[in-house]
Write a structure and sequence with these properties.
This protein is about 45% helix and about 20% strand. With about 325 residues, the chain is of the alpha/beta class. It has 2 domains: about 160 residues, Response regulator (Rossmann fold); about 150 residues, Rossmann fold (3-Layer(aba) Sandwich), CATH 3.40.50.2300. Strands 7-6-8-9-10-11-12 form a 7-stranded mixed beta sheet, with helices on both faces.
């Protein structure tokens, strides 16, 4: 077939498509999903995000497309990825898990809507002007997770009474690490506890971090909120069991995987809320008019099988307030 004949045929073929189909092809919105970590361990959270989109009437691969950009812990890549998504351009950018992706997206564009998902205070870190009136092109969801670290300390002390030393597992390169260490130091000091900060910035450093926690005579451990630890969830749970360290986690999924206990807002539901907000924006809502969503409930999850394996008896006071007990 000659070139001129082919072009004529292609034009007639496109013209024969139903108008609705052609319109859908031309108008399918695209979401840019920007995350500082990796997709490992994110299955439940991405399911939550897609569930929120579905509630708003959008299904990935049918009437909306999602372009994922994973920084794999290389924070310097976020700026590059955000600029790439803005230049594409996408219709909405999601800044997932932490302040850095949202801040990178905000810096990349003042016109494309940005919906963040973070555990930090979005006003304090400069994502929005206020919680109720975000202003500009940015809004989102916060779990206030990093602010809960002192509360987690109080809960695990109820389960492990008589504790005199506690370890805090952190990623030294994590964006919320300094904040969380500071939030832990004051209550630990007030309670007369020895606080040992143990560090792991990659998988190969976890063994040494747990060995250090045990050698320091820590009687319990708290896992700081960090994307890295989501991807290493199973290994952390296994190491806590191997070293017989009662551990408190920042996500329910770690307890479902065999961890002892967690206290947090639901991370999966947080992503669902992000999906709902993205859907509303795709339908015409302005980010400036959508207040930042905050958790109205924090969940205490306890794994009784793990407690028994550690020789711990969960006090009735904790069982009474637990939102979920895994047996």
């Amino acid at each position: 077939m000659k070139r001129r004949e082919f072009i004529a045929w292609l034009g007639s073929a496109l013209a024969s498509l139903p108008f609705a189909a052609r319109a859908q092809q031309a108008s399918t919105p695209t979401i840019g999903f920007l995350d500082s970590g990796s997709p490992k361990g994110m299955e439940a959270y991405l399911d939550g995000f897609r569930r929120g989109l579905s509630e708003a009437g959008y299904t990935d691969g049918q009437n909306v497309a999602i372009v994922y950009r994973w920084a794999e812990g290389r924070m310097d890549q976020l700026k590059t990825f955000a600029a790439e998504l803005a230049a594409r351009p996408v219709d909405v950018i999601v800044g997932s898990r932490g302040p850095a992706p949202g801040l990178a997206a905000k810096a990349a564009t003042s016109t494309i809507p940005v919906v963040f998902q973070t555990g930090s205070d979005p006003v304090e870190i400069g994502l929005v002007a206020s919680m109720n009136k975000p202003g500009g092109n940015v809004t989102g969801v916060t779990r206030m997770s990093s602010a809960l670290i002192a509360k987690r300390l109080g809960i695990i002390l109820e389960l492990v009474p008589g504790t005199s030393a506690i370890a805090l597992l952190v990623n030294p390169n994590g964006p919320q690490t300094v904040e969380q260490v500071g939030d832990m130091q004051e209550p630990a000091r007030a309670l007369g506890l020895q606080l040992h900060i143990v560090k792991a910035s990659k998988e190969s450093e976890l063994d040494a971090a747990f060995a250090e926690a045990r050698q320091s005579n820590a009687q319990a451990l708290i896992v700081a909120t960090d994307n890295l630890f989501i991807g290493l969830r199973d290994m952390i749970v296994a190491l806590a069991a191997r070293h017989a360290l009662p551990a408190m986690y920042f996500e329910r999924e770690s307890v479902a995987a065999g961890g002892l206990m967690s206290y947090s807002a639901s991370l999966a539901d947080s992503f669902r809320q992000v999906g709902v907000y993205v859907g509303r924006i795709l339908k015409g809502a302005r980010p400036a008019d959508l207040p930042v969503l905050q958790p109205d409930k924090f969940e205490l999850v306890i794994n009784l099988k793990t407690a028994k394996a550690l020789g711990l008896t969960v006090p009735p006071t904790l069982l009474a307030v637990a939102d979920e007990v895994i047996e």
